[in-house]
Structure formats: structure tokens, C-alpha cells
Amino acid sequence: MKNIYNKIKHIALSVFLVVAASSCDNEIEDIGGAQQNYNTAYDLIQANSSLTVFTKAIKLAGLESTLNTADNYTYFVPNDAAFDAYLVANGYVNDLGYPDITLVPVEDLKQLVLSHVIKGVKKRVGKLEGVEADYLETGDYATMANAVNADLYLLSINVTNGVLKVNGSDKEAPGLDYYGTNGFVNVLSNVIELTPPAPVISGLSQVLASPGDVITITGQNFVKVKSVKFGSTAATFTAVSKTEIKVTVPADFDSYALIVVETDFGVSAPSSIGLKYLLYADDTSKISYQWDWGGSFDMMNTENVSRGTHSIKKVTGAWSGFYIGFKETLNTADYQFLKISVYATESTKILISIHSNANNDDSLGTTVQLVAGQWNNISIPMSDLKLNQVGATFNNIFIKEYSGISLTPGNTIYYDDIGFL
User: Fold this and answer.
1) Judging by DSSP bridges, how do beta strands 277-280 and 271-274 pair with one another?
2) Run of H or E including 11
3) How far is the CA of 383 from the CAs of 272, 353, 366, 387, in angstroms?
4) CA pair distance 154, 163, nearest whole angstrom
5) Element of type H or E holding 260
6) Cβ atoms of 324 and 279 closer than 8 Å
7) What is the pTM of this model?
8) For every one of its 421 residues, what pLDDT tens digit does the chain have, with 9 covering 90 and above?
9) Which of 72, 91, 169, 195 is least buried, going by the fewest C-beta atoms within 10 A?
10) Residues 313, 322: Cα–Cα separation, whole Å
């Protein structure tokens, strides 16, 4: 009789557990995983001995009444080791060097906690065969922090073969998800930060520009842009998106500037625009002499320009070219690139070199192939100009047609924006 009683007791207990599990989530037949007394998701966090730092963060941020409700939640909670490592990495340590969460400003702590919570859903990671359920899928999710600050990044979740990774973590969340009456708690090995990092400039629509030009800055993290500066001069701008800014080149722009973008979240590394030494643009004030051969030469042409109002026009033939001498001597170590814009009416090749005195030594310099019918914006590393032969200084530039073939009579090459960066 005792054995029969024990069997009946075991069956009754099993039925009770199934019914109780079903009551946790009426959309999930058997949610499995690890459960703790069918508490709310909030209670699970409070009861978990490896999540004590996050529990303290909730209290310090004054979010107990916000989170301790019957609403549905999905939590992504860093374990104590991960949270302590985050505190140390960000300088929140006491006099003895131990992590101290009380040192985190309350508003920052509030944002940090809310960045780990999705409200209105209760989704799990571990999929159960044959069970229809509300599972987390790979994608971007809005957190409670996003609801407060729309400029924050979204929560980025990757679930592959039952392994959860959150916001680029290189380690999966340890263990199975915990479940309660109103949601799931996923334990993480990293702390989630949705605050955008400092802005990054990756490119400019124009290498050279003039005052009043509207150029496009491309990059990343252009969120809450405060200013765009050319050197110390603030420019007029429009933040088109998180990856694009339209900016007007300031009136006092000369020929070179370092551009920086500042947001509420940091300042970009500078990006250069223009030339440190602009030898020729729209005037000849820095030129001491010029000599050419094999065709006509016009230093102040206006019929075809890359930028501004003037260019150099050279009606050329095979091997024809010119010298331009500088009024000042430049140091080769001060520059990284020779820059020049060239337009050829026919496809050809030119030789470009620099010298400390006028000469026509073809062994110096480098050749460049030109595409006909368009401005070729050429950037030549100074190292390609055979500086070991040029020497420490230079004061003239030599350009020569270098195809060696008979070109169509009247073939023309235009040169503009000659300088060094």
C-alpha cells in the first residue's frame, strides 16, 4: 500500500509542476530552463546571488518601483564579475582600488540599468523542440533607456544555435535564461552601453574647397552634433543622419584646416582638408619664375578650372613641359603628399618631380596616367618622389608630358590646385 501511495503522490506532484509551469506563461507549454519559486522576473534578480551589483544599481538609481511591477519584461543582466570589471575600467573605484558602484552618477546609473531591460515582452533564448513560444531572435531592440533618450543606440542581440550575445560581446551569456511569472532574466558576461561613442570622420566629399562651398562629411556616431570646426572656426552645418553632415566652408578658410566634429558624447579625431602649402590656385603670388617648352603656356587661364577662377593651361605635345619655381624653400620632411588636379583633353601620361634647383633629370619623380575628359585629383606620396636624391629641401616643381607619342595638334592639359599636404 505504501508503494502505491508513493506512486500516486509522485504522479500528483508531477501534474502540479506541469500546471504551475504553464501558469508562468500561458503562451508557453513548457518553458523549461531554471526557475526560482515562480517569482516575478524582478524577484529572480533580487534572489540571484551572482547579480548583487545589478540589484544594488537598481536601488541606487531609484528604479525599484519602476521595475517591480506585474508588467512583462526581458532582462539582460551582467553578472557581478562583469559589472565589477566595468566599474574598474571606467574608474569607479574607492580609495583602496576596489569597484564601487556608489561612485557612478545617479543619472548615468539609471540609463545603464534601463539599457538592460526590454519592457512589454517576455522572451527566452533557449529553444525547446516542439514548443511554440516567444523566442528572442537576432536583431535590434528598443530598451527602456531608448524610451527615455531616443538618441541612444538600440540593443543589438545575436542568437545563433541557442547562444546569446549582446552588443558585440565576445562571450555568450552564461547559463540558461531564468524565467518567472512575467518574464525572463538572461545573465550576461558583459555590461551593455547604449551611449553612442565619440564621432568618427571617415571621409570628405571634397579634398580641396573654397569659402562658401558646401561639403559632405561622412563617418559614424553623428548623434546630437554640437559643432563642426575648421581649426578654431565654427562652421554652419546640418546633421543629415548619424553618418552624414553637410557643412559650409567658413569665409576665413585659407587653403588648409583640421576639421573636428563635436557631439554630446565626444570629439572626433581631426581630418584635414586642403593643403598646408598651396603653391598655385587662383594667383601666382608664391611663384618666383616659370619656364616652359613645346607649346603655349597660360598661367591665368579661365576657360577650364577645377576650383576657383583660374588654372594653368598647357597646349602640349610629346615630351613638352614646364618648371615652376617657388619664392620660398620648403622642407621635404614637412609634407606627406604632393597634390595636383589635372585635366587632359586626351589620355596621356605625365612625369612629376620636385627639385632643389631647376633641372630636367627624368630619373627623379614619378609618372601618372591621366584619364581624358575629367579632372584627375592626384595625390602622390612624397616618398614616391625619390627624396633621397632630392635632398632635405626643394623649391621648384617639374611637369613633363611622358607618353612619348604624337598627340593630336592642340591637345591641352590644364593644371590646378598645386600644393603639398
Assistant:
1) unpaired
2) helix 2-24
3) 20, 11, 10, 6
4) 20
5) strand 256-263
6) yes
7) 0.66
8) 444 444 433 433 333 333 333 333 333 333 344 444 558 999 999 988 999 999 999 999 999 999 999 999 999 999 999 999 999 999 999 999 999 999 999 999 999 999 999 999 888 887 777 777 788 889 999 999 999 998 898 999 988 887 888 887 777 776 667 888 898 999 998 999 898 889 999 999 988 888 999 999 999 999 999 999 999 999 999 999 989 999 999 999 988 999 999 999 999 999 999 899 999 988 899 999 999 998 899 999 999 999 889 999 999 888 899 999 999 999 999 999 999 999 999 999 999 999 987 666 677 889 999 999 999 999 999 999 998 888 899 999 999 999 876 666 778 999 999 999 9
9) 91
10) 11
Buried b (16+ CB within 10 A) or exposed e, 159-192: beeeebbbbebeebbeebbbbbbbbbbbbbbbbb
Question: For cell 524577484, what's the residue?
Answer: 43
- Residue 330, amino acid: L
Question: Amino acid letter at 270?
Answer: P
| Grid coordinates belonging to 364 | 627623379
